[in-house]
Amino acid sequence: MGAEKDIIIAVELASTAIRAIAGKREPDGSMQVLAFAQEESPNTIRKGVIDNIDKTTQALSHVVAKLSDKLGVKVNSIYVGLGGQSLRSVHNRVLLQFDGLELLSHKTIDKMRDTNSGVVYPNAEIKEVVPQEYTIGSRSIVDPVGMQAEMLEANFINIIARTTLEENIRKCAAGAGLEVQDIFISPLCEANALLTSNERRSGCALVDMGADTTTVSVYVNNILRHLCVIPIGGSNVTSDLTSLKIEAEEAEDLKKKYGTAFRSDSEDKTGQKVSLSFDRTEDEEKLQEIVEARYEEIIANVCHHISAYKEQLVSGVILTGGAARIPELQQAFSRQAGDKLKLRIAKGLPENVTISFGVQVGEPDRLYTLYGLLLEGTENCVGEVAKTPAQDTFDFEKKEEPEPVVEPEPQTEPEKPEKPEKGPSALSRLWKTIGTMLSDEE
């Protein structure tokens, strides 16, 4: 792909897998998905909370490495979603009494918000504040600035979570060599991506049925009114089926093949048998009874949390998540919530998300949380062009080039210097001289 600019990376720490997605914002504000990767992570995330820091760090490293390979760039930072069992909303009211009529200003509102933010919760901290209406006398007002009042009441929804939740996310990211650009509240991001402005304004409940948890978000008049995470999900159904003395993997397959959230009383009982491991069989009806019973419990919990707003949910309930793919789920909801409550199962891509040609994301309508996180991101998360795996391996294992071997020249005996020729000895010269003298005397 080559080096790209302003690529946003979002990561979802789900109970069954860690997923990462890369996207680039288009000039019109929409998001184009460039790559997707996931890493199965059994026994790392439990009820949406990091249960094993080492395994989560390793899985995060692997999924980001996969994404880097697909992008051809190095991922330096990520946006992460925060969810989990401890995430919930708490209502808080702040009262301000004045001496006579007071002209309300932005400073007054900021003071009330600061007072609300200073609330301390045992073993939890405020992650997000959602202002509700303000009350003057008997009137509910969205924006009281510029009005006069002797007393002002401000209502807030504080979204809180366990203090260690964000700490562990940052710890795992640091262990994987990644910077955290920001941590977003996953249900809020998902709602922004999935719900239409008309649904939030007219009143609706978004129900995300995951593996370990079911998250309920209620909107009325375009404002979040309630948020909770129910610690029950699709994996509980699978666990119930293991009571038939079968492994979890087999139970999951049976749930997908035969499970239903609603069985009609008038349905004919065929007595059909279902094959189990070790040459055993079980009544299909019994399997469906087990599945239906657990879905009844999940739906009952959801109905309890939306009951206070039921008359205001003109747009009804929007269902999403892996556990929402079971047959007859809408009928099961209608049986407990009533036929008047409108229901729909979210399908397809959000209107402001597109997927690049050739990019594989599996089932695109199962990634609404990731799409929401991606749309919230603003900062570039990638760096220089990454090396190919072959180059990385070569560089890692590269050894120093050996020095060229210089063969020694063959050793030869050094030539002996030639001896000077010997002249006549001194005795010979003496006799020669004597001989010459005798000849002269003669």
Describe the structure.
It is a single chain. By secondary structure, this protein is α/β, with parallel strands linked by helices. The chain has a domain at 89-161: Dna Ligase, domain 1 (2-Layer Sandwich), CATH 3.30.1490.110. Helices cover 33% and strands 31% of the residues. The chain has twelve helices and 21 strands. It has helices at residues 53-71, 106-117, 163-175, 186-194, 197-202, 234-241, 248-258, 284-306, 329-337, 368-376, 389-397, 426-441; strands spanning 7-13, 17-25, 31-40, 45-46, 49-50, 73-75, 77-82, 88-103, 124-136, 139-141, 148-162, 179-185, 204-209, 214-220, 223-230, 273-276, 280-283, 317-320, 343-345, 353-355, 382-385. Helix 1 (53-71) packs across helix 3 (163-175). The longest helix has 23 residues, at 284-306. The protein is globular. The N and C termini lie far apart (121 Å). The relative contact order is 0.15.
Which strand-content bin applies to the residues? 25-35%
**What is the average per-residue confidence, as pLDDT, rounded to a whole number?**
87
* Spatial ordering of strands, largest sheet: 12-7-1-2-3-20
CATH topology of the domain at 89-161: Dna Ligase, domain 1
In short:
The protein is α/β, with parallel strands linked by helices and 442 residues long. The protein is 33% helix and 31% strand. The chain has a domain at 89-161: Dna Ligase, domain 1 (2-Layer Sandwich).
